[in-house]
Design a protein that fits this description.
heterotrimer, A mainly alpha (about 170), B alpha/beta (about 290), C mainly alpha (about 240), B: alpha/beta, elongated, C: mainly alpha, 7 helices
């Protein structure tokens, strides 16, 4: 599967080359930048190494921080979603929200000072009530994985067969 | 009156998201100024993990440290991993020696994260006890292949024959007498998924295993600890703050406790406001 | 005054601000960073993959282990995915091998750990001790969750409906706890980003006035440029 990464590189270069060649409006400048950065970083990695300071700094600024920022933005989206959409509309959703509230509040350092009773309650819920359900679910997942693996290894899984491809 | 109320509820619920983002970010910036919050209680699971390390780690033990995530997700278990590894090294140091630290990874960013962790967070402890590369610790690089890779590594850690920097493994003193997983005293993992390690390492070989994961580990890991398939776990920044409290070495998680608390508080207040407004609309409508 | 750490900090602020500018609108700053991240991720993947192949297969091959030709040849067969429908059947062989081995190892590990291990935990809790009530709660929640999944065909019967409802509620307990911790995880990244921008990343926090001033200037200049860019965008005519 490691070899498939090289396929990905070929596909990426091919895609962006086509965008540049066709001068796709509003997009070709970004593709030029992508190809230039790709060439530059490959050059740095070959000449110096991926362990060099320059390469690692390029990595931090183009890969490390953007992904961290993307996750931070998803945190903002979650706050926005919790403000608009997390409503106790049914019994199930009420149970979910109550547990969410208790678990998050118990893990909050500030709450552990003013509500010290919450820690043991949350610990009990996580150790017994939630873990009980999870133990059952884990067994179910294990049995499901065994069943799926059995079907896969014996060729009974149609989605991965040649016939499925022909149909598509 | 009820129409006015529901109008107000709708107005508040339909506030542009930018206001919410702005308020959140401003409050988080302000929270950085305030001092860190002292810890009031420690989870029994974290305490048991700490006690296990104190009682069982001795000089000369082989400890495998496995880094699994990419850099962004690594932030979530960075304080926990730092606290646990520092504690392991300090425990061995106080007993008069050093552990043998073997570092492996699964993600393409493994080398960069190890350098970030080593240079930034573990350096002080490693310098204090005099850890040198090749003699006391080694970075074996990426173990590819998920379950298959772990299966092979457990039987033969010399697969590949060279470390992450091209040095022959047989020439490294730290690899001496390390034949297979039965020689490993402790496996510390910083990742989000614990299942491959449980299936291939702790299940067949019963190796001691400490999992440093996201906050979600507080929910998913107790069943593994209670069924003796995991020695202990540290869940995200809250768990890391507990561990830092136990080892009496405040770190990242302790420093960030006020900001983390404010972030969680904003989340909870948002949920409460949403439900109050929804209920008021429902009551007003009825 | 050492300028290098300050410049590196300001570059990080620029990257973070570019990413956060997406919250307002898709804009050139965000697009450049996004495409740059893609190029960087690809480079890293390529070189790391090459290092793995070199370490695991090529080094032993050069030392005389001729069996390594087999995995290398299988890996090369993956490339046939690019050569049209007539030849891409060759790429199935390495995929089949990888999926087969991975599935077999996962199964071998899943049965003693996930299935038997958890069964032992549930049965092991059936003891009359000080934690009897708590253990009973554990066993009941586990059994009801199991019955919800395994006896789904009974959900339409009267007793089955009751059991499935209890099973649903117990599963919701786990879902709620898990959901809460998932929310916590993403919020931690947001908190860390703010902490990095205000303390950890600042070269000489908290007394580094030039860095803070530089960060404010960077953000203001970016905001001004985005305002000019937005003004120059052609406005789409409103639908009648």
């Amino acid at each position: 599967m490691t070899f498939s990464v090289f396929l990905g590189l070929v596909a990426l270069v091919e895609f962006h080359y086509k965008v540049v060649a066709n001068r796709k409006k509003g997009e070709w400048q970004y593709s030029v930048f992508t190809l230039a950065l790709l060439a530059l970083t490959i050059g740095i990695a070959i000449v110096l190494s991926t362990d060099s300071d320059i390469y690692q700094n390029v990595w931090f600024y183009f890969n490390g921080w953007p992904y961290l920022a993307a996750l931070a933005i998803s945190g903002l989206y979650q706050i926005s979603a919790s403000f608009r959409a997390m409503r106790a509309k049914s019994t199930e959703s009420t149970i979910v929200l109550i547990l969410t509230f208790i678990v998050v509040l118990a893990q909050m350092p500030l709450a552990s000072i003013y509500l010290p009773q919450l820690g043991p309650i949350s610990d009990w819920l996580l150790k017994y009530a939630s873990s009980g359900a999870l133990a059952g679910i884990t067994i179910g997942i294990g049995v499901g994985a065994v069943a799926l693996g059995y079907r896969l290894l014996l060729g009974k899984e149609k989605t991965l067969s040649l016939e499925a491809d022909k149909g598509a | 009156m009820s129409e006015k109320k529901s109008g107000l509820a709708d107005k508040i619920l339909n506030l542009p998201s930018e206001y919410l983002y702005g308020v959140t970010i401003i409050l988080l910036f302000i929270s950085v100024i305030f001092p860190k919050i002292p810890l009031a209680s420690v989870s029994p699971y974290v305490e048991n993990t700490y006690n296990w390390v104190n009682q069982n780690i001795n000089p000369g033990d082989i400890v495998v440290f496995e880094l699994g995530n990419d850099f962004a997700y690594y932030i979530s278990h960075m304080p926990g991993v730092t606290a646990v590894l520092n504690h392991v090294m300090d425990t061995a140091g106080q007993k008069g020696g050093k552990i043998r630290l073997i570092v492996i990874g699964h993600n393409v960013e493994h080398m960069l994260i190890w350098r970030y962790a080593q240079q930034g967070l573990l350096k002080q402890t490693m310098d204090k006890w005099g850890y040198t590369y090749g003699k006391d610790y080694a970075n074996l690089g990426i173990v590819p292949g998920g379950d298959a890779g772990l299966y092979v590594f457990a039987k033969n850690p010399y697969v590949g024959e060279i470390d992450a920097y091209g040095t022959q493994l047989k020439t490294l003193e730290v690899m001496k007498d390390f034949k297979d997983i039965n020689n490993v005293k402790l496996w510390v993992q910083g990742n989000w998924d614990t299942m491959p390690e449980i299936r291939q390492i702790t299940g067949p070989y019963k190796t001691a295993y400490i999992f440093v994961g996201h906050p979600e580990a507080a929910v998913s890991s107790p069943i593994w600890v209670d069924s003796n398939q995991m020695t202990g776990f540290v869940a995200g920044w809250p768990g890391a703050q507990m561990y830092e409290f136990l080892v009496n070495k405040p770190g990242l998680a302790s420093f960030g406790s006020m900001t983390i608390s404010v972030a969680y508080l904003i989340l909870l207040v948002s949920i409460v406001i949403c439900n109050i407004l929804y209920l008021s609309k429902k009551v007003g409508g009825a | 005054m050492d300028l290098v750490p300050i410049i590196m900090y300001l570059l990080a602020i620029f990257v973070l601000a570019s990413m956060f500018s997406m919250l307002w609108k898709d804009n050139p700053f965000y697009r450049f960073i996004q495409y740059g991240a893609l190029a960087q991720a690809m480079t890293m993947s390529v070189f790391t993959s090459w290092a793995q192949i070199y370490k695991v297969a090529i080094v032993p091959l050069l030392k005389g282990d001729l069996l390594m030709i087999v995995p290398l040849a299988l890996g090369v067969l993956i490339f046939f995915n690019r050569f049209g429908v007539k030849r891409n059947w060759l790429a199935r062989y390495p995929l089949a091998l990888g999926i087969g081995i991975g599935t077999a190892l996962s199964l071998a590990g899943a049965i003693p750990t996930q299935i038997l291990g958890q069964m032992k935990l549930i049965i092991g809790r059936a003891v009359f001790n000080a934690d009897f009530v708590s253990n009973l709660v554990f066993i009941l929640t586990a059994l009801s969750a199991l019955m919800y999944f395994f006896f789904y065909f009974l959900h339409n019967t009267a007793p089955g409906r009751g059991v499935s409802r209890i099973g649903r509620y117990t599963i919701m307990i786990w879902v709620g706890a898990s959901f809460g911790t998932m929310l916590m995880m993403n919020v931690i990244f947001l908190a860390y980003t703010v902490m990095y921008a205000s303390v950890f990343g600042v070269p000489a926090a908290p007394n580094d006035i030039p860095s803070y001033a530089g960060a404010v200037i960077v953000v203001l200049v970016m905001a001004a440029l985005l305002w000019v860019w937005n003004k120059n965008q052609k406005k789409e005519p409103k639908a009648i």
